[in-house]
Structure formats: structure tokens, C-alpha cells
């Protein structure tokens, strides 16, 4: 009997799930290997559970991490897939980090207002 896998029309589909900051997942969802990271981010935003404390508003609020690397928006899934994605189970987990640009701006302002007199030093005797 011939391998069914070779004849499947969805051969270039990759099953991904996205692990959120609280350990919950979005997916698994099947994507074309030619889908870009920017497209994944848009889908994550549309699928994001509305009951979460942190909700990304735009794609740039979301960082995707796969195999320890932050993925660039213009990279395709095929380009960023790790060798572990070739395993028969097939589901690749990517971690989602939310960094809203608004929060980043507020944090930068707070840092500037902090007194600079507090310094810490350690001495080993």
C-alpha cells in the first residue's frame, strides 16, 4: 500500500498552537508553510481570548518565539520551522509574548523619573 501522506493535498500545511503567558493555548490551527509570521500574529489577535488581563491590539504588540528565537514578521513558517517540527505528531508550539507599545512608553517614562542616587554594590571579603 502506498503512503497516504504523499498523496495528501494538505502536505504543506503545518499545525501550530500558540502558548500564551498564562499557559493556555490558541489552536492547534493548520497554516500554509508559506504563511508569514505577520499573518500568524493577525490570527492570534483575532483568536485572543477576551477574558485575559492583557489583550494585544496590533500585530506589533505580539512577539512569537519558536525554538528559543524571536520570529521576524516577514519570515515564513517554512523558514522558521525547527527540525523538531518534522516529528510525526506534527503540532509545533510557539510561545506568545505580549508587549503592548503603550506599556513600553509608560515604562520608559517611569525609568527617567526614578532617582539616580540609588546604587547597589557588593563586596566579597
Automatic annotation (TrEMBL):
Name used for this protein in its record: Membrane-anchored ubiquitin-fold protein
Function description: May serve as docking site to facilitate the association of other proteins to the plasma membrane.
Origin superkingdom: Eukaryota
Classification via PROSITE patterns: UBIQUITIN_2
Keyword set includes Signal: no
Pfam families, per database record: Rad60-SLD_2
Chief localisation class: membrane
Record organism: Musa troglodytarum (fe'i banana)
Subcellular location: Cell membrane
Amino acid at each position: 500500500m502506498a503512503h497516504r501522506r504523499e498523496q495528501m493535498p494538505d502536505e504543506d500545511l503545518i499545525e501550530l498552537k500558540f502558548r500564551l503567558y498564562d499557559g493556555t493555548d490558541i489552536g492547534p490551527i493548520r497554516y500554509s508553510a508559506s504563511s508569514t509570521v505577520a499573518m500568524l500574529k493577525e490570527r492570534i489577535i483575532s483568536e485572543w481570548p477576551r477574558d485575559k488581563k492583557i489583550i494585544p491590539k496590533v500585530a506589533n504588540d505580539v512577539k512569537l518565539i519558536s525554538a528559543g528565537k524571536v520570529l521576524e514578521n516577514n519570515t515564513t513558517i517554512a523558514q522558521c520551522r525547527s527540525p523538531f517540527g518534522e516529528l510525526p505528531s506534527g503540532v509545533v508550539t510557539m510561545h506568545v509574548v505580549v508587549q503592548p507599545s503603550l506599556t513600553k512608553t509608560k515604562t520608559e517614562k517611569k525609568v527617567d523619573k526614578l532617582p539616580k542616587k540609588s546604587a547597589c554594590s557588593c563586596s566579597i571579603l
